[in-house]
Amino acid sequence: MAQDIASEKGTKIMEMIFSSMLGGNYFDGKVLGIFFEILTQLLIYAVMFSGFYYMAPHIDGVKDTFAQIKPAIDQALGQIISWGLLFVVLGLILYIVYAAVCGAIVTKAEDANKAVQPLVYLTLLGLFSSMSLSNNPDGIFAMIMSYVPFLSSFLMPLRLIKGNATGLEAAISLIILFVFLLGSIWWIRKIYPSLILQTDDNGMWKNMKRALQGIKE
């Protein structure tokens, strides 16, 4: 996502697009396009899992083991379908939105990987926090982090599966994530045109500063 956007900067195509439509609308379309592309891949995996789920009880050598773990799978699926799916969708959109910003900040496509590193670190933090949750599900760290927007999509579904969170706690975390996502989209839609049209190699933070100054003006 970030590298794709960075490669578009400074091209004649972008100038033509921004002369015929609002930059915010282009940003919306870009995010939705990537989201549905990822969603399609996830649906393919879901179909494959569904096929295995319904075929496993009839396969010799697998059905006995599957019968033992099926209750745990059903419990996890129940939580994922009810709450986890919402957290995954909103969390995915949030990461896509900020990946777009990372790509728009840089002026060279090869710098996109460097710009997206903060998101990579957040993802790793979410994964490592999920591992620590397995060892200490009642820990204060896991509880607090399950309300942080970039991490809640990792931790809150796990807390629900393990029975360490209530529906009210999940709802509060989801509302925080949703409000943060809406605020991020509103803010990024305003600075995105200024970022994507910058071609001077002044560094990521200077480009961001110029974009923010463009809003004030």
From TrEMBL:
Location of the protein in the cell: Membrane
Protein name as it appears in the record: ABC-2 type transporter transmembrane domain-containing protein
Pfam family, one: ABC2_membrane_3
All copies of domain ABC-2 type transporter transmembrane, residue ranges: 2-186
Main localisation: membrane
One GO MF term attached to the UniProt entry: ABC-type transporter activity
Lineage of producing organism: Bacteria, Bacillati, Bacillota, Bacilli, Lactobacillales
Keywords linked to the UniProt accession: Membrane, Transmembrane, Transmembrane helix
Membrane topology: Multi-pass membrane protein
Example of a GO cellular component annotation carried by this entry: membrane
TM spans (from-to): 31-56, 80-106, 118-134, 140-158, 170-188
Keyword Membrane included in the entry's annotation: yes
Native species: Lactobacillus johnsonii ATCC 33200
